Structure formats: structure tokens, C-alpha cells
Automatic annotation (TrEMBL):
Keyword Methyltransferase: no
SUPFAM superfamilies (alphabetical): Protein kinase-like (PK-like)
Basic and acidic residues composition bias: residue spans: 73-82, 388-400
Region: Disordered, residue numbers: 62-86, 388-409
Full protein name: Protein kinase domain-containing protein
Source species: Ensete ventricosum
Length: 409
């Protein structure tokens, strides 16, 4: 049998060897590519996780809501006082009430557990009377419809309002912010609000809005002229203070009888001021007094003179004892007192506009006439024709002084 020479197979062996090397090299390259892909994927995941954690911490820092580690959250809800932080560095600890300088003494958990009594529903939330410290009465307003403001913006605005101190402004004790709950806490005014004081707390005022004394309860405490004049002066001074110390184009924006509270001596305390920046325009237009003014109805504009118009409407309600359309709660029909009183003056039956409850011998005094004229001046259709709030306060002061001198004589 013929045997092939080894040298004849050398080229074939070289080809086979080269093929194995190439195949091995291809597998090696595939393995290296796979390793690089896995490493790149891991690096990319680590990078994405780092960015995610950084963004969460940055967002938490901006909103003041960085979540503490488990076990470190104070669940007692103890109150903390506002210290002298920088103007732009308002901080509130999770689950805690921020107190003004005269507040404090109770925590959120204690407040939520306190026995509460509903006081009614206002334009922007319900109010509750609660007893804390076993004897102290406070009012908690649950704000509803607050606009898309951040926690920092809300706390800064509340801090600014709590700094407004005047004998005729209801002091702000504290406030609380969370994504689902916004609370404003103040002292309880034992004599209720001005609307109930004038018209009676449980009154059927829906049928005859202009009838003096219509619907008033028989056991209602009479509201004397001197007490009404005291209210007119106190509210004027509070409004003057707001106009001098607040930058807002409409410092109050929602002045009406139900937003004037009365303490144990019938001293007026103006409340619910300064909420215009927090309320969305779409909601405020339907619920705030300033948007019922003539200038808004005609030109869709409001200004500081709009507050003057609101004060004039309040004076007319004090003087006539009739329900104003700007002051009506739900289910009560009010009237356009400005038009009604102006017609009475033109037709010379002015004496009939005064509430008979405080008339002495069925006659109006000079102070009553002067206050009526001031009210009509404040209610001028054109804002340019209305006085400034400082001028209004001085005029009411002169009227009050004149009435006091007349009583002394």
C-alpha cells in the first residue's frame, strides 16, 4: 500500500491550525465584548441611581420636606416657635405647628385630639373651636382652595401675616402646612362675628332683606349706637394699618361683617386679611368681596381703593341694620345698600335708612348723619373719587370724638 509523504500534508495542517487560532480569537473577542457591555451597563445604572438620589435630595431641600431616616420622625407633634431666621429661610419640621411669638404650648397631636365644635364654613374653609391646655380656646381654620404655592411660599406669607400686630387685628397664633392640610390657628373671640351681632345668629333674612329688624331673634342682645361706632372706628384703624404695612394691591380683599370678630368688650378684631396672594383668581372671583366692587364689574380691576369700598359697604350695614349683598352668607338674600341709601338721600327720606334699634327718640344724631355721608363717599362708583384709608380713619375718629362730647354735654 502506498503511504503519503508527511511533507505533502503540511499545507493542510497549517490551514487547520490557522483556522483554530482564528476561531479562538473570535470567541475571545466575543467574550471581551460581552464583558465590556456588562461593565458599561453596570456603570450606567450606577450613574442613573446617583442622579436620581441627587435630584430627590435637591427637591427635598427646596421644599423643606426631606424625609428623615426611619425611626427619627418625631410623632409627638410638639409645637416649635419661629426663631429669628433669615427672611428667605423659613423652616418647618415635619408634623409640627409653626407658632408666632405669642403662640405655642400645644402640639399638632394634642390639637387633633382636642374636643372640637364646628363654627361654620367660610369662603375658604371650615372653622372649628377647640380647647387646648385644658382651658384655652382656639379657633382652627382649615384652608381650602389655596393655590399652587410651595411650602416655603406658604410659610413665608404666614410669617409675614403673623408679624402684623394691631389691637384691632385678630392675632395669628400659628399655622401648619402639609401637602393635604393647611391650618391657621388664632384665639377664640367670645362674642362671635359682626354679622351675627347685627342681624342675629339664627335669623330668617331671606324674605325681606331691607326690613329693619326683620328676622331678628327676640332674645338677641340690642346693638347700641355707641357699640356700632366703636366697631366702625376699630375696623377703620385696622384697615389703615394694613394699608400702611402691606405691599399688596388689595391689603385685605375680603372685608365683610362675618370677617369682623368681637371680643368680650365688643372690640372689633378684623380677620382673614392678606389671603389674596394665596387664592387662585378663578376661585377668588366668586368668593371675595373685592371682586364684587364696581371697578371689577366694569373694568376687571381692583386696587387699594377697593378695600375702601368694602369698608363703606360695612358702614352701611352697621348704620341701616340691613343685609348687604357683599356680606351675605349662604342661603341669605342681601340687597344693594349703596343704591338703596343713595335713593333715600335723593328722595329726602334719609331718616328711614337708620336702624330704629339705636335711634334716640326716633331721631338721627349729627354723628349718624356724618357717618352715613362717609359711607357713601367710600362707596363712590369711581375709585378715584373715594378717600384713602388713612383719611377715612381720621374722619371716623373725629365723628367718634364729636359723639362722645355730645353725650358728655
Amino acid at each position: 500500500m502506498h503511504t503519503a509523504h508527511p511533507h505533502h500534508h503540511l499545507p493542510l495542517l497549517l490551514l487547520l491550525t490557522l483556522g483554530r487560532v482564528v476561531a479562538a480569537d473570535t470567541q475571545l473577542k466575543t467574550l471581551l465584548v460581552a464583558i465590556f457591555v456588562i461593565v458599561d451597563a453596570l456603570v450606567l445604572l450606577i450613574l442613573l441611581w446617583t442622579i436620581y438620589v441627587f435630584c430627590r435630595r435637591l427637591k427635598a431641600k427646596e421644599t423643606g420636606k426631606e424625609n428623615p431616616p426611619p425611626g427619627e420622625v418625631n410623632e409627638k407633634g410638639e409645637g416649635v416657635r419661629c426663631e429669628e431666621e433669615e427672611e428667605d429661610a423659613v423652616v418647618q419640621e415635619p408634623g409640627k405647628i409653626t407658632f408666632a411669638k405669642d403662640g405655642g404650648g400645644f402640639g399638632l397631636e394634642e390639637l387633633l385630639k382636642a374636643s372640637a365644635e364646628g363654627l361654620g364654613k367660610g369662603s375658604f374653609g371650615s372653622c372649628y373651636k377647640a380647647m387646648v391646655d385644658d382651658a384655652r380656646m382656639v379657633v382652627v381654620k382649615r384652608l381650602r382652595g389655596v393655590g399652587p404655592v410651595t411650602k416655603e411660599e406658604f410659610l413665608k406669607h404666614m410669617r409675614s401675616l403673623s408679624a402684623m400686630e394691631h389691637p384691632n387685628l385678630l392675632p395669628l397664633l400659628g399655622y401648619y402646612y402639609s401637602s393635604t392640610e393647611k391650618l391657621v390657628i388664632s384665639n377664640y373671640a367670645c362674642n362671635g362675628n359682626l354679622f351675627d351681632r347685627i342681624h342675629g345668629k339664627i335669623a330668617d333674612l331671606s324674605s325681606k332683606p331691607y326690613e329693619t329688624g326683620g328676622g331678628r331673634r327676640a332674645d338677641r342682645i340690642p346693638f347700641s349706637w355707641s357699640s356700632r361706632l366703636q366697631v366702625a372706628q376699630g375696623v377703620a384703624q385696622a384697615m389703615e394699618f394694613l394699608h400702611l404695612n402691606m405691599r399688596s394691591s388689595v391689603p385685605h380683599g375680603n372685608l365683610k361683617a362675618s370677617n369682623v370678630l368681637l371680643d368680650e368688650s365688643d372690640k372689633p378684631l378684623v380677620c382673614d386679611h392678606g389671603l389674596v396672594p394665596l387664592i387662585p383668581a378663578s376661585l377668588a372671583v366668586n368668593r371675595m368681596v373685592c371682586y364684587k366692587s364696581p371697578e371689577y364689574q366694569h373694568n376687571r380691576s381692583v386696587s387699594r381703593k377697593t378695600d375702601v369700598w368694602s369698608y363703606g359697604c360695612l358702614l352701611l350695614e352697621l348704620i341701616t341694620g340691613r343685609v348687604a349683598a357683599t356680606s351675605t352668607p349662604g342661603g341669605v338674600r342681601g340687597g344693594e345698600l349703596c343704591h338703596w341709601v343713595n335713593r333715600a338721600v335723593r328722595e329726602e327720606w334719609t331718616g328711614e335708612v337708620f336702624d330704629a334699634e339705636f335711634l334716640v327718640h326716633k331721631r338721627a344724631t349729627s354723628g349718624m348723619i356724618m357717618l352715613l355721608k362717609l359711607a357713601l363717599w367710600c362707596c363712590e362708583q369711581s375709585p378715584e373719587k373715594r378717600p384713602e384709608m388713612e383719611e377715612v380713619a381720621r374722619e371716623v375718629e373725629r365723628i367718634t370724638a364729636g359723639e362722645t362730647d355730645a353725650e358728655d354735654d
